[in-house]
Specification:
Pfam families: PNP_UDP_1. One of its GO terms (molecular function) is catalytic activity. InterPro entries: NLR-like, Nucleoside_phosphorylase_d, Nucleoside_phosphorylase_sf. Helices cover about 30% and strands about 15% of the residues. The protein has an eight-stranded mixed β-sheet. Helix 3 links the parallel strand 6 and strand 7. Helix 2 crosses helix 4. The radius of gyration is 19 Å and the shape is globular.
């Protein structure tokens, strides 16, 4: 799963939303790959390859369908819970009271204790004020994904990269894959890339991203899948 880079002026809640690359030339940036200038400034130069056209075409069709008919994600996630009852509670939306975005200046005081245990949210000035969402259904966001070798859990760095590149979220796997195997990166959102990270939303984010991937694959013609390179072939070649 991955972490979101929230823009408080635009977004109303991210734990039940998720992100995947947009129809742009460089959908993933390796934010920890670059060069240091003489003045000590770090310049990012690690943009990764563009997804294959067959996947971008399928994504365009899916987005258009959803704009007209609505998304099937809520139904698919609910069906997953019915099929696997033991996971039903984990795959459900985890409620708004567990979706808290802290101001970037407030760091988690004790890494060995949870936000609930040490009452991180007891003061309103620690939280970013956001308008209530109209629906708790999953929402798809298209945009730039930042990939790196370390977990992003610093709100100040998160905000710096968000403002500089327009990054929507952070993750750790795409940087090692995108340039060797043509793919479209789909990520489920489970936290806010800050020191208050927890795992409560991970199962839900995984379920939503899996449901979207299934939905996306339905828009790819079988004949094009048969022509595509297999993962094993691409791995051996690289």
């Amino acid at each position: 799963m991955n972490s979101v880079s929230p823009n408080p002026s635009n977004y109303q809640g991210f734990h039940n939303e998720w992100s995947q690359p947009c129809l742009q030339t460089q959908p993933v940036i390796q934010y920890d790959y670059g060069k240091t200038l003489s003045e000590g400034e770090f310049v990012d130069i690690g943009y990764l390859n563009r997804p294959p056209n067959v996947l971008l075409t399928a994504l365009t069709k899916l987005i258009s369908r959803n704009e007209l008919e609505g998304s099937s994600l809520p139904r698919q996630v609910a069906d997953m819970g019915k099929k696997y009852p033991r996971k039903c509670q984990e795959w459900k939306y985890q409620e708004v009271e567990n979706d808290q975005l802290f101001v970037e200046s407030f760091r988690h005081p004790d890494i060995d204790r949870s936000c609930k245990d040490i009452h991180c949210a007891e003061s309103e000035d620690r939280l970013v004020s956001r308008k209530p969402r109209r629906s708790t259904d999953p929402v798809v966001h298209c945009g730039l994904i930042a990939s790196g070798n370390q977990v992003m859990r610093d709100a100040v760095t998160r905000e710096k990269l968000r403002k500089k590149h327009g990054v929507l979220c952070f993750e750790m796997e795409a940087a090692g894959l995108s340039n060797n195997f043509p793919c479209l990166v789909v990520r489920g959102i489970c936290d806010y890339s800050d020191s208050h990270k927890n795992k409560r939303w991970q199962p839900y984010a995984a379920a939503v991203s899996a449901a979207f991937t299934k939905e996306l694959l339905q828009f790819i013609p079988v004949v094009q899948l048969e022509r595509a390179h297999r993962v094993s072939f691409m791995t051996k070649k690289s």
